[in-house]
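pinging the channel bc i need a second pair of eyes. not urgent but kinda urgent?? the chain im working w is below, pasted from the shared doc
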Amino acid sequence: MDELINLVSQRTGLPADQAQAAVQTVIGFLKDRLPGPLGAELESLISSGSGSGAGSGAGSGAGAAGALGELGSLAKGLGGMFGGKQA
């Protein structure tokens, strides 16, 4: 999740503590509204190296980047579900 917080901070100019609060708010919002298995999948995508399936060490950056890409795809799909523009 640290990588996502850093990304939000860089792209928005928010201090790290505010970016963390924003990320946690959005993640909580999505988890509350997604069906159980998707909420759990979201949590595993953004977790920072703990639990099964998450990388650690030097190769974890590529895994985190892939997870962020998957999260972006999920967000695009959800945007279409809630009336947003689809690509």
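so Residues 48-62 have pLDDT under 50 and may be disordered. and The CA atoms of residues 9 and 15 lie 6 Å apart. — does that match what u expected or am i reading it wrong
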